[in-house]
Fold:
Amino acid sequence: MPSALAHAAPALALIPAFARPGAPRRIWWLGVMCAAAPDLDVIAFALGVPYAHPLGHRGLWHSVPFAALAAGCVAALAFPRPVPGFSRPRAWLYLFLATASHGLLDAATDGGLGVALLAPFDPRRYFWPFRPIAVSPIGVDAFLSARGVAVVWSELLWVWLPFATLGLLLWRRAR
Ligand SMILES: [Zn+2]
Structure:
C-alpha cells in the first residue's frame, strides 16, 4: 500500500470539484478517512485470514463496489438531514471517489498481492500494467529506513505530484 498519508491525496485533490458555499467541513475529513480506511483490513492478518482470501488484505474492503456501499452508509450516517447546498448524492459521490481511490492506488504499487477491485462480483486480484508506487512498510520504524526514503520519494512523485496538479486544475476551473 501507499502510506495512509498518501491515500489522503485523492480525497484532498477532489475538494475543489465538490466544494460549495455552505458545504459542511466534516465531509472533507470524512473523505480523507474513507480514503485511508480500507487498510483497516490488515486486521485480517491478526485474525488468521490469509492474504489471498476474499476477506483478506486488499480483498473485498478494497473493492469499488464496497466503496460505493461504504460511501452510502457514511453519507447517510453523517448527513441524516439534508444540508442546504450540499445534497446527499453529492456527499455520496465525493465519499465514493475518495474511498474507491484507495484500491485503485494500491493497484499501482510494486508489491504484495493485487487488489480485488471488483469483489464480490469478481474475486480476481488486479494490478495496473504500470506500477510505479513503492509499497509502504508498516510502522514508523520501517519508515525511517532506506526503504522508507524510497517510498516517500515514490509517493511524492507518483501520488502527491499528480494529485496536487489535479487539485490545482480543479480549483482553477471552479473559480
Ligand atoms: Zn490498501
Q: What stands out?
A: Residues 1, 38-39, 58, 62, 102, 106 surround zinc ion (CB under 6 Å). DSSP finds eight helices and no strands in the chain. The longest helix spans residues 146-174. The mean pLDDT is 92.
